What does this fold into?
Amino acid sequence: MKLHRLELAGFGPFLARQSVDFDAFADDGIFLIAGRTGAGKSSVLDGVCFALYGSVPRYESGEKRLRSDHCGPEDPTEVALEFTAEGSRWRVTRSPEYERPKKNGGGFTTQAPQALLEQFSAGSWTGVAARPRDVAARLDEILGLTQQQFLQVILLAQNRFARFLLARNDERQALLRTLFATRTYEDYERDLESRRKEAERAVAAEGDTARVLIDEGELLARESELDGAGHGATGDAEPTDAATPPESDASARPLADRVAALVRAVERAEYRVDTLARARDAADAELAAATERERAAAALRAAQEQRLTARAALDALDARAARVAEQRAELALANAAEALRSPIESVERAEVSARRAADAERDALARCSALGEASLTNASLRDREDDLAATIAASDAALAAEGERAALDASLREARDSEQAMLREMAELDDRRRPIPALLTQLSERLAVVAGASRGAESARAILGDTERRRAAAHEAVALEETVRAAEREALERATAVTTTAARLTALLQRRLDGAAGDLAATLVDGEPCAVCGALDHPHPAPGSDDPVGDEEIAAAEAEKDAAIDADRVAAVAWRAARDAHALVAARAGGDDVATLDAAVESATAALARAEADVAEEEALTAEHAELTALAEAAALEHARLTEALAEVRQRVALDEQRAAAAETIVEAARGEFATVAERRADAIGRRDAVRALAEAGAELALRTQVLADARADRDARLVASTFDDASAVEAALRDPAVRARLDEAVREHESAARAAKERLLELELALVDAPDELVDLDGPARAVAEARHAFTSAISASTAATGVAERLRDLTQRADAAAEGIAALADRHAVIARLANTVAGRAPNTHRMTLETFVLAAELEEIVGAANLRLAEMSSGRYRLQHSDALAARGAASGLGLEIMDAFTGQARPPQSLSGGESFLASLALALGLAEIVTARAGGLRLDTLFIDEGFGSLDDDTLDLAMRTLDELRQGGRTVGVISHVASMKEQVPAQLLVEATPQGLSVIRQQSTVVV
It folds into this structure.
């Protein structure tokens, strides 16, 4: 993993966006993050951690503390980090939660945390994830390191450096557990402990189960008198157990003896079941015999009752025989009369039809008489009808001609009206056309006068636009004059500030040089050589300065001078830019002042107005000329159209007059003596209908008279052949179909019932030939059946209860025997699991009191110590070496993860807390680097190209610092970049590549970057 670029905005002490280019330090290999205390050096590393993991561990209050206190309501807070991992380049951008103004309305709202992960491919950035949760999940896959691993491997943060070295066993275990993800072994421990408790509970539960089953079986045996103390309920002798102890001593006996006693009780129960089963079978046979005797007696009594019922039914049928005979005779007459029903009804229908035909003939004759057609005979009626039909046809043709005449009259009137209208329209059109030629001549003369007005308007418009632009430039030049003066004043002030700050820095340097002799004299020691002359005696050391100048004061003066120079440069650029802008605007104004250009704009505006008025007049005259020309052409076309239409109308009038005269001739011939053709046609239609109706009525009357005579002859012939005297006798005998059906059904039912009653009575008399007429008694057989059923029910209950007791007792005995056998196997399994669980949990027989997780972590710790000693031996000149200790801790505390320092000078091991500050730093640095190597190896061989170390170098003397720096210098091999945070002055000289974090007088911090390429 390699970091490339970091950007911070509104984060920690940084308000404006600050950028850090880590690639610029790639050639140096090691760079220093320097700055005054509190300037924000560690905040740079906080930004790296926040970008990758969304939090900063050194802030306990969470993300809300990350936003810069210098931010205004509208200022954003954002961190962006570019890095390379898995062979790809990535960029992650994050913003913490903070309060911002609402977009709509007043007040503030909470801005939710935001995150964006992008991948650089094909020359551009492509989004991969856009929600904090998704970004975190994707970064876990890419980085392969948790946050704790990152802080121990890549970012060795402030106040966390020596924590691992000086931690107690339990604290070191918690950190190693996080780095190496060994909670799985703790899960193994919990699982084994759970299985131990489960096995213990299983043994106890199985024993309880066996005892409960045996207790329940013994109680059931005693309640059922199967415990060998007496005899069963059947009175038969059962096997006994003279050795059965009292109930109070049963629970103290071994489980095997109690199970054997239950087996004997099961044998007694099975003997009792067999005895009661035989008694149940005997009772069942007796119940079947009694039931059969009761059924035979009930069948005989039922047959006796049926015989009595059959005799009574036959007597009732004999009593109804006379009435049935009458119904049979009535039915026979009705059936005979039914054959004559149709002839009689036919005569009645024929008589009605004949009367109606006679009435219709009389009505038709009266109608003909009223019309004067009564003298016609039957033979002449058809001829008269044909004459009248011919008259009606002629009237229809005349009616058509009469209707055509009316339409022709209307058409003639319309045509003559059209002719007059066309004549008037042509006269009016001639009046309108007459003045048009003179008007066209006048318009042509005026157009010749105003021609070319549009070109003059374009020229006037261009002049006005140019004049207005020059006037705007003149106004802008006036406005820029004040800006130029203000920029000039600012440039002069900044130049003065440069002079002042340079003079102050020079004075401080001079004071520093003046007090240098006093500073050297302060370091002289009698007997040691002078650093300047080498003398061992120092008789007259120079006095020290009363007002010494420190490095910080000079650095502040240099920073103030640099800031003044930067401000002077910015002010000079701004003054030059203002002058250039004013000169450019003045050139666009053409050298004229605002008043002159205002007058020029007014004159150009008036000229444009006159030119536009001429253009408008030219356009209006052109449009009027075109309109008159179009009007003249349209009038000529209209005159030609009217002339043609007038000729067509006059021709149509002549044709309509000829057709009207022909239609009038036809109508006069068809009207006759009537006022209209329609009246004559209506009279002919009325006469024809009356004559036709009279002819049809006569024919219908003749037909109906013949039908009536035929129907009477058929009826009389059928009466002669029947048993009836006349038609009235037939009508008296007729019955409706429903009545005949009821009579037939009554007769048939009586005959069928009498026949069935006689047959049933005969069957019963033959079946009961030896039986008395008195009914047999059923109470005795019923009592016998009830007694047998009660005995059988009692036997079944006793047998079922004995069977249930035997089955329950057998089941309890089998289950108790199985439970007793399972207890031994469960106890053996519990012993094995308990020993393993106690050993893994650090309990006896584990003499080291090390849990399984601690054992695994101890192995990891030994590798870490081995890797750390490779560097600690060099940095301590072979004096110190770390070693792992698994000694038992006092008062039962956790053991197995102890660390000791082996001192080669004394040959004794001592605790890390006994080291001095500088020695603790070296040991912590070696241990941290060793830890980083092992964690990196466990993370799948992840390559780490960037490493940060925060503080700790101030506790080292010069020689030790050189050893530490050589160790860090070795880390640069293979292209790794190491960043070191320190305010130690000597490190600024040893590390030329620096990232400077400077605090401004307003409290804000800025980052300045400088690198030196090492050749």
